[in-house]
Amino acid sequence: MTRNKINDILLSDQTNYEVIVKGWVRSFRNNQFIALNDGSCMANIQIVIDLNSDEALIRKITTGAALSIKGQVVASQGKGQKVEVKAQEVTILGECDAEKFPLQLKNRPSLEYLREIAHLRFRTNTFGAVFRVRHSLAFAVHKFFNDRGFVYLHTPIVTASDAEGAGETFRVTTLPFENTPRKEDGSIDFNEDFFGRSTNLTVSGQLEAELGAMALSEVYTFGPTFRAENSNTARHLAEFWMIEPEVAFNDLDANMDLAENFIRYIVQYALDHNKEDLEFLAQRLAEEEKQKPQQERSEMGLIEKLEFVCNNKFERITYTEAIEILLQSPAYKKKKFQYEVKWGIDMQSEHERYLVEKHFKKPVIVTNYPKDIKAFYMRQNDDGKTVAAMDILAPGIGEIVGGSQREERLERLEQRMNEMHIPTEELYWYLDTRRFGTAPHAGFGLGFERMVLFVTGMTNIRDVIPFPRTPKNAEF
Ligand code: 4AD
Ligand code: MG
Predict the structure, then answer these.
(1) In the CATH hierarchy, which top-level class contains the domain 125-168+203-463?
(2) What is the pTM of this model?
(3) Pocket of ligand 1 from Cβ distances under 6 Å
(4) pLDDT for 190-213, tens place per residue?
(5) What three-state secondary structure class fits 443?
(6) Residue ranges with strand state E in 353-466
(7) Superfamily of domain 6-101, CATH level 4
């Protein structure tokens, strides 16, 4: 007989059939009722064991223990569940020392504490829900693009370029630390390195995705990216996953439409497929919100917020308009912003959140940023000051998407690269697409963990990736 998933048993109204369930004990009361969870859903199944069971066996049924149970599905007498399993055979697969098991604690463990035991936190309701939702979102990403004829392109993890030109890369090398090979001028001789050159982990698959788009028209990447930025915030990881579609013949407007439809689609997918998990997370968030002072509480519950995003167009404004709104805002006039506001600034999180949470109260797409705060590849606008960039700002998160129309004109691109000291010889392959049949194109990057934060209502990015990598932290 094969194992029955708890989710399948609970979803079905059928009774009086035999099953084998396997999972971990969440609780055991009155030496009779086991709440068993196998991760297939939020809910536990109730297992009722014979009161005359062997005492030695009973002693081993502790929170955290792994069990296999053969039994009969019957209508439940108790409240809270339609069906339960009347056990005929209980096998202990793995005992759990209740005294030492960190999740045995009766009080709800804090998220901070659970981060220290990230190898065990999957066994809590919160993390079960978060990672089931994360899975659904990832699946929805592939489904969205597949349904629209995009090609999933696997861009490299090890590269010799810094796509964003921000110098925040992790080096990849096999050179020894001692007696490192050096050239005559004393500098490190990367000819001796594994790849015969200096290499690093990718910060973005965009440049390679652009090459694919110049033949396949519609491509996307979905992979891990790495940034050695020393920002210890609730929104930054050193290793995070990014989705980057790149589309030939798209301009900035088409790029915004794609991003907006894409976000709505994956949110709707989670609403349709993770109802129980999202309701649990909504409840969790509502309790957390109650701890906050009145004026800081959000007006919408989690599910309401997600439905709102699915049913309403995002606001679209230019960077120049955004700065104007900030300068006119009561917050600015009352000197509530910590950072300066003027045309040319890279907006801080407090500015982005003001626009999204206070002013528009919905996601906002900001376009046409000053060229000096954006990457070299963005298409230069005719005003000579701005580029065809777009950032999507989400309530409670800030920037969730960064993208642009790309500079497809060879001369303009080379000139900008020179101005920004980006080596044109090394990126000859990138420039070749502009030499051989260049075409307008556009794309964007969605930070996957920021999206998971948004959908789950969690507040720290470390709690939506199984094993977070942050400065001074790479455990597990
Ligand atoms: O705005 P970014 O840097 O854009 C790019 O990398 C472009 N190459 C994307 C493209 O056009 N194909 O990053 C894109 C998104 C951000 O909006 C943010 O959501 C996320 O990636 N992101 C991070 N998420 C977690 N931790 C970090 N350190 C992040 N840095 C960026
Ligand atoms: Mg960005």
Answers:
(1) alpha beta
(2) 0.96
(3) 163-164, 204, 206, 227, 229, 236-237, 240, 242, 244, 399-403, 443-445, 447, 449-450
(4) 999 999 999 999 999 999 999 999
(5) strand
(6) 364-367, 389-394, 398-405, 441-447
(7) Nucleic acid-binding proteins (2.40.50.140)
